């Protein structure tokens, strides 16, 4: 992916550019094959079948970072975490704490609104077996870097779902200008790391004023985690509430 030309055109322009990306042959072939063959339950629907952009307001103070769109979820609907079981869990929790207008997310035109929250992923195409390669992750990174840069004026907290997202997000934050501790923080559910903005010659207070971000780890909302109880709705709500407070957002108890 050629990130040249990704200047200050805003998130809407970035999202439009993402949806036209064809940089990873394996992912292009897979997402388009899934869109042609479909799942029987969705045989009458037209699949999106393209890269899935982020979803949420351009002035979000809280960002949620997943892994990649689901083959019959985001790859079908065209919206992150929409139309699959993982999305059912995530949006229900966001609604429960007061950060979403409804508990369900079934289609891109269902009227769902997020309040101060944006949802994205480090890989924008549905991968076979939900497993992008490291090369595909790295190819997609400039999109996440630019998204972080565009969100920088308002962004105060980030929830990363799962170890893959954590490993992909840290280099993106570094490229976008935040100072990532060395050695890099290890992913864990409930992990919290402060990333300060790097500013040449600035002291800590100046860097904080320049825009620090609180990074939170959370187990992914995959069926493997939610069906086994590794991640419960209460655990997810707790992380979201803590991150929302760090982002300056008001939540329901």
Q: Distance N terminus to C terminus?
A: 43 Å
Task: Please bin the fraction of helical residues.
Answer: 25-40%
- Helix-strand string: HHEHHEHEHEEHEHH
Beta content comes to 5-15%
Determine Rg (CA atoms, Å).
Answer: 17 Å
Unreliable stretches (pLDDT < 50, length at least 5) are: 1-8
- Give the class from helix and strand content and strand pairing: alpha/beta
Tally of structural domains:
1
**How confident is the prediction overall: mean pLDDT?**
93
What is the CATH superfamily classification? Answer: Uracil-DNA glycosylase-like domain
What can you tell me about this protein's structure?
It holds the Pfam family UDG. Keywords: 4Fe-4S, DNA damage, DNA repair, Hydrolase, Iron, Iron-sulfur, Metal-binding. Belongs to the uracil-DNA glycosylase (UDG) superfamily. Type 5 (UDGb) family. InterPro entries: UDG_Type-4/5 (IPR051536), UdgB-like (IPR044147), Uracil-DNA_glycosylase-like (IPR005122), Uracil-DNA_glycosylase-like_sf (IPR036895). By secondary structure, the chain is of the alpha/beta class. It has one domain (about 10-245): Uracil-DNA Glycosylase, subunit E. Helices cover about 40% and strands about 10% of the residues. The protein has a 6-stranded mixed sheet with strand order 2-1-3-6-5-4, with helices on both faces. The radius of gyration is 17 Å and the shape is globular. Residues about 1-10 have low confidence and may be disordered.
């Amino acid at each position: 992916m050629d990130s040249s030309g990704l200047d200050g055109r805003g998130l809407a322009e970035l999202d439009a550019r993402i949806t036209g990306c064809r940089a990873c042959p394996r992912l292009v072939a897979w997402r388009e094959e899934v869109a042609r063959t479909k799942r029987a339950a969705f045989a009458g629907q037209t699949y999106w079948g393209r890269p899935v952009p982020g979803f949420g307001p351009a002035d979000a103070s809280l960002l949620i970072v997943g892994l990649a769109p689901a083959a019959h979820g985001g790859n079908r609907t065209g919206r992150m975490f929409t139309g699959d079981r993982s999305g059912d869990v995530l949006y229900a929790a966001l609604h429960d704490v007061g950060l979403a207008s409804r508990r369900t997310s079934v289609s891109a035109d269902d009227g769902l609104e997020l309040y101060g929250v944006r949802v994205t992923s480090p890989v924008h195409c549905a991968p076979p077996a939900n497993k992008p390669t490291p090369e595909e992750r790295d190819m997609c990174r400039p999109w996440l870097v630019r998204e972080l840069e565009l969100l920088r004026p308002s962004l105060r907290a980030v929830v990363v779902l799962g170890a893959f997202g954590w490993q992909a997000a840290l280099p993106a934050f570094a490229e976008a200008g935040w100072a990532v501790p060395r050695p890099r923080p290890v992913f864990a559910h409930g992990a919290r790391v402060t990333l300060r903005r790097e500013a040449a010659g600035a002291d800590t207070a100046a860097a904080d004023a320049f825009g620090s971000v609180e990074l939170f780890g959370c187990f992914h909302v995959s069926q493997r985690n939610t069906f086994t109880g590794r991640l419960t709705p209460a655990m997810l709500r707790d992380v979201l509430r803590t991150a929302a407070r760090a982002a300056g957002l008001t939540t329901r108890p």
